[in-house]
Amino acid sequence: MRKAMIVWGGWPGHDPDLCASMIRGWLRAEGFEVRIETTTAAFADPAIHDMSLIIPIYTMSKIEKAEALNLCAAVRSGVGLAGHHGGMCDAFRDSVDYQFMCGGQWVAHPGNIIDYKVDLTKPDDPIMKGLNSFEHRSEQYYMHVDPANEVLATTTFTGEHAPWIEGVAMPVVWKKRYGAGRVFYSSLGHRAYELDVPEIRTLMTRGMLWAARE
């Protein structure tokens, strides 16, 4: 049985506890044994090197250097990393090691909760196959991203709330390699109920399975 670890905490506005419960259920349905932790100290545990998948759900907050380095080393060795929204890519803002691994960092969501479109850029990728571009109402994340990411979906800013970014196509979903590890990220899912949007649930589940080490 493959083992996964979810570490949740940080800013409560992203419903980290509810998200952790939902994702735990999805992974158990896929045959994973799931460990739940609520402090960043879990990232320093040598046992994480034996995991198949790690899911951080920990907006903002702080990670100790030793914790970040152990987590990065585990992923470089082949452990998968997957996550969504601020729980993964607005976590640990002062850790460049962590950000290098994740492939992106949140910097703004102009207009806060707005209507926007998610456009598939690689509809034939196994993670996105059978899905279509879709409208969504939530935070439209503006991010600083790694050009090495393999982008699976984007969103285009209208400029209504920040005129200088009109027409910018911003990655929403990506996958990448980090050493021997696979990393998957989706910026969707500001609140837990959004994870049950069929398109979001499908791409998240597939993305986690893609990232997980066999």
UniProtKB/TrEMBL annotation:
Signal sequence extent: none
Species per Swiss-Prot/TrEMBL record: Bradyrhizobium shewense
InterPro entries: Class_I_gatase-like, ThuA-like
Segments forming domain ThuA-like: 3-211
Classification via PANTHER family: GALACTOSE-BINDING DOMAIN-LIKE SUPERFAMILY PROTEIN, SECRETED GLYCOSYL HYDROLASE
Superkingdom of the source species: Bacteria
Name of this protein: ThuA-like domain-containing protein
